[in-house]
Amino acid sequence: MDEIRERNSTTRPPVLDGGNCGCWKSRMEAFLMSLDMRSWRVIISGWEHPNEKDETGKVTQKSELKWTSEEDDAALGNSHALNELFNVVDQNIFKLINTYKSAKAACDILKVAYEGISKVKMSRLQILTSRFEALQMTEDETIVEFNVRVLDIINKSDALGKKMSDSKLVQKVLRSLPSRFNMKVTAIEEANDLPKMKLDELFGSLRTLNYTWEKVRVKGKLGLL
């Protein structure tokens, strides 16, 4: 999923999808500040329910009816910020923060959760990138089998939010073929506009050429008998 899903309304916060947490934090900061500076202040300094001491000196939560205007403002800012945070996450992540009464505490949990997810995704993407760069078709591998291996890397990369362009994939596949495919590669390069070629078109051409040339090779052998 990548990252930040856009919303058409400029009055709604950016949705956190788990990819670009750093970008989301900057946009969420700007959104909360534009919404109400009180909302942004509670993210920075936190918010706690106002307390008071009773006749015995025991500290208890202060009744909302006794709050000062400053305490009212701080509580309102916290409520606004907390509500917006609840609106930017999916149901699974919402379960992590739905019991928090402090917007700062909820925001801190989101940072820990998503920054951890981002690090795991980055590690997995680095592994996939290494696999892609080292990708080579083996001598005993068929076109179909090689196609499956390539698609496995593509699908896993897509699932982590990184989409590879067809142009990059086509060039990589052509470079990864064994020398026995040299003539086929030349034929494909001469017959197609490679920058515009789709990956499935390339593998389709490779299968067709391989099948056609294999028939010619077999007929040639039979003719020599």
From TrEMBL:
Pfam families: Retrotran_gag_2. This is Gag-pol polyprotein. It comes from Cucumis melo var. makuwa (Oriental melon).
